[in-house]
Amino acid sequence: MNAINLRLWSATPATVFDLEQFNREDQHPDYYTTLNARQKDENITKVLYPKTTPKGLEVRLKQQYFFCCATLQDIMRRFKKMQLPFSEIPNYVAIQLNDTHPTIAIAELMRILVDLEGLDWNEAWEICNKSFAYTNHTVLPEALETWPVPMFEYMLPRHLQIIYDINFNFINLLRSKKNEDGTPFFSDEQIANLSIIQEGNPKRIRMANLAIVCSHKVNGVAAIHTQILKDQTFHDFNQLWPEKIINITNGVTPRRWMVQCNPHLSAVLTKALGGSSWVTHLDQLEKLHSMITPELIAAFREAKMQNKVRLTKKIHDMIHIDINPNAMFDIQVKRIHEYKRQLMNILGVVSRYLTIKKMSPEEKKNVVPKAVIFAGKAAAGYDIAKLVIKLIIAVADVINADRSVGDLLKVVFVPNYNVSRAEEIIPASDLSQHISTAGTEASGTSNMKFAMNGGLLIGTLDGANIEIMDHIGAENIFIFGAKKDEIAGIRSSAPGWIDERLYDVLKAIQDGMFGPGDQYRPLTDPLWLVMITTVLLMIFHCTWIVSTRLIVYGRTRMNGPVAAS
């Protein structure tokens, strides 16, 4: 077993505060100037992911460079202690680019090796190629990180030069590649798409392309995700280097996500399996198939109930909402994002609420009580995601206060979601939602955590859901929705039906059931547009059919029967 250091960098000013200068009254203006400068320096590591304003983007780029520069300085310091030639770096150093945010490290290491250590460009490039690998988390081309060249030129001029040199050599490689008949392997359009520099006004640096060009391996984080990278997102790169893009499905550790966060279930498993070796050999859990008894099921249910009671107490302490632990805990906890479809989930909750409201007392007796629990954070500048959170909380306030519904439906948004919150929520789940549009979720490791803790999964054929289904069996996961290959066809045509439940939900939101309806228009207007478009197309289709039949009828009256055409 190996242990490595985790380093957390913080920015501090290079200049020391001068107390003597402050004490001289005539120097106060300089003091405040120095204080402001110190504050700006420290902000580099104080505010994560600032808004995407011009100033916010500058801070982001500074953050990326700061963390990469600090890390590479530490790497080089440690390597030099071994007094080995620089060519040995790849044998001792592996730099994994976790998505594109640290990709500036490529240009920085080239700068260190060429400018500071005096290596030849080709030798430095070989070291970088063998040291870097790139993990992609983004299948959508429009979501891949790019930076405007003018900003780079202003903030990191030497690094821009290095990136241009890397791209120059790469383009020459592309142009030199020929088919067997001597014709160019890549068209000019393909070369433009592969280029690290994207033409436009302004030109932009494609950080994903830079990461692929330099890295010796590129991996997706789920089987479906990796296949999308090969077939679509990085298709031309896959043609150039067929062996470079590989799959390494994400994983989670049972030490944290079972033993630490769920001691009740862990104790049941350890007793049933006669020891705790399953913690490091999770495949031993397969033995449970032949060990299922009423006693084991009862022990499992008791562990689940203890976790649910623990969570209900925590929720009461945090936000003063009482939940019946005997209710079904339906949970969706993850980053708030449109493609993860928390909006669809909360619209479904509203539909359930409206349905229960219409029920008679006798009908309500057959309803399974449900507590729908949301948690997650949205990026500071992601207004739509913030609005989804606002809608969830507004819906929760209305439903939780409705005595006619009572314990049949409760809604909770757990604030300040983090790993510690996840460790309290996940063991208590009965059902967990992983409902991203097929082909958009790279992996989604939280579904693994829920499955390990005995929670049932409902979701689409996306991300790790597919591989989990392959291992646990399709009968043990609730799969719904369109497949990846069907999405494009659905998006290109309006549905041929109207869902009355969706209409009722949108009408309730518009009419102010959960606060002023206009505030939610960015969420509801696109859905209204789809419904209106569908109605118009249906009217047009019906009108066309009727008019066609009238024409045929008129011709028949005038000329007698006509042959069908």
Mean pLDDT, rounded to whole units?
91
CATH fold description of the largest domain: Rossmann fold
Strand order of the largest sheet: 10-9-8-11-12-13
Percent range for β-strand residues: 5-15%
Which spans of ≥5 residues are poorly predicted at pLDDT below 50?
A: none
The level-1 CATH class of the largest domain? Alpha Beta
CATH superfamily of the largest domain: Glycogen Phosphorylase B
Instruction: Compute the number of strand runs.
Output: 13
CATH architecture descriptor text of the largest domain: 3-Layer(aba) Sandwich
Query: What class would the helix/strand composition place it in?
Result: alpha/beta
Helical element count? Answer: 24
Task: Give the overall shape.
Answer: globular
What gyration radius follows from the Cα positions, in whole Å? 29 Å
Helix content: 40-55%
Q: Work out the count of structural domains.
A: 3
Could you give the distance between the termini?
77 Å
**Main sheet summary:** 6 strands, parallel
